[in-house]
Amino acid sequence: MFDSLYSATSNLEGCPCGAHDSLASHNAFAKLAAPPQPALAAPAVATHDIETSMADLAEAAVVKAIFGADANRRGFMNLVGSSTAAAAIASVLPMGFIREVAAQAPRALEKPKLEVGFIPITCSTPVIMAHPMGFYAKHGLDVNVVRTAGWAVIRDKSLNREYDAAHMLAPMPLAISVGAGSNAIPWAMGAIQNINGQAITLATKHRDKRDPKQWRGFRFAVPFDYSIHNYLLRYYVAEAGLDPDRDIQIRAVPPPEMVANLRADNIDGFLGPDPFNQRAVFDGVGFIHILTRELWDGHPCCVFATSREFTQTMPNTFQALMRAIVEAAAFASKAENRRQIAEAISPQNYLNQPQTVVEQVLTGTFADGLGQVQRVPERIGFDPFPWHSMAIWILTQMKRWGQIRGDVNYAQIAEQVFLAADASRVMRDVGLTPPASPMRNHTIMGKTFDPANPEGYIASFPIRRT
Predict the structure, then answer these.
(1) Using CA atoms, how far apart are residues 129 and 118, in angstroms rounded to an integer?
(2) C-alpha span between 83 and 77 (Å, rounded)
(3) 226, 232, 411, 443 — which has fewest CB within 10 A?
(4) Rounded to whole angstroms, what are the CA distances from 145 to 71, 119, 330, 345?
(5) SS3 call for 307
(6) Over 76-143, what HEC string results?
(7) Distance CA 459, CA 450 (A)
(8) How far apart are CA 233 and CA 251, in angstroms?
(9) What number of CA atoms fall less than 13 Å from residue 201's CA on the CB side?
(10) Which helix (H) or strand (E) element contains residue 343?
(11) Which domains does the chain have, with CATH numbers?
């Protein structure tokens, strides 16, 4: 239709005289009832992406409304020519604006009823709060957020398609995509759920062992082998001269079980997500040794992820999910909303934690278990942008500790898994300003990471498996 819009010989009504149900019927009748005439050309068929097609339809509707009967449109095109006609219409109507609005119009959702898995930790705040606070419903989604026991279960249920999307640890979509710990399946990470928001918590009996050089023989828990927690703990102790595979023990423990293991003396500490660092203090069994923002301020932790197949076969549903979660993250990023969010996500069906524990985490005013009240407003943040450079850093740690081997196309994997372009578009839609580039340098424990030189970065560490 659009390709014929400014043509004097095309027909946009099906029948110029209105007496027939198709252009073919009209032309057949015309051959019998009148001297031979050139048949009217049928509209050309073009293939566009959905945004362009919606914009084309809007412009076609405007032009048809201006002229009424299609014969009037064809007569005007014959009189002034197609280019002049298009320019004349555009001079009096904001056609560019009309096209832009139409391109952004809501699309029909391929699957509005969804299952989304989450682990009950404050890192999942946007995914959880979008349910009770109406962000999913705003975008036409009926989402069942499902509390899940651990990250291996999240991964397996996602791979088995029991979950349409899930709250995952930032390294998990990368690990799934490259086949680390499972068969390689293309996975996608649409938005980061949280930055910072983790800590190293030690058992109360270790109050006098604040130097990691004293931790030889300690037993630590992390949430999963493919987690920012595992990589930051390894980095931290290796910088102190300890080999994380030989001088300490690191085991994977689901976050809800960490405090119980600390109380039972099964572990000496953990690098884990909140609210369990704060819960250890609340229960009197541990103290916060260090917040991970002191190791890498702004580091990613958890993400919203789904299969690449889901993004391709259900693009409208995926975009609606992205908008809901990015809007929730934008709401959560404002300090004045944190207490309201704590109230919404503390109940049993979500975090199942005392509201005061969740508030201490989200507001950054908290007891540290050493007799002090700390005030760290940046203890946890909610910046949804998926930096490719963060993905590259994670891949360097996977290779440093032997989880992946051989040649790694770092930049390509980062681009395929961390969907920075999709996130940028959604962030602009909700009034946020995304970065101009998905790459930047990061500073981890005082050392600069340049994503353009990942192999050199790995080689710079004396303690490594490669």
Answers:
(1) 11
(2) 9
(3) 443
(4) 55, 10, 20, 12
(5) strand
(6) HHHHHCHHHHHHHHHHHCCHHHHHHHHHCCCCCCCCCEEEEEECCCHHHHHHHHCCCCCHHHHCCCEE
(7) 13
(8) 12
(9) 33
(10) helix 338-345
(11) 2-103 (no CATH), 114-193+300-390+397-434 (3.40.190.10)
What the block records as the tokens of 243 is 């080999």
CB 331 within 8 A of CB 128: no
Structure tokens at 113: 């009823």
- What is the residue type of 86? A
Residue 435 is encoded by which pair of tokens?
A: 């970065």
Q: Output phi, psi for 448, to 5 deg.
A: -80, 130
pLDDT tens digits along 189-226: 999 999 999 999 999 999 999 999 999 999 999 999 99
The whole-number pLDDT of residue 39 equals 40
The closest alpha carbon to 143, from 328, 343, 355, 309, belongs to 328
Q: Between vectors from CA 362 to CA 361 and to CA 367, what angle results, nearest 5°?
A: 30
pLDDT of residue 104: 61
C-alpha to C-alpha distance for 442 and 393, rounded to whole angstroms: 9
Residues facing residue 269 across a β-bridge: 202, 220
Q: What is the pTM of this model?
A: 0.79
Residue the block writes with tokens 């005082």: 446
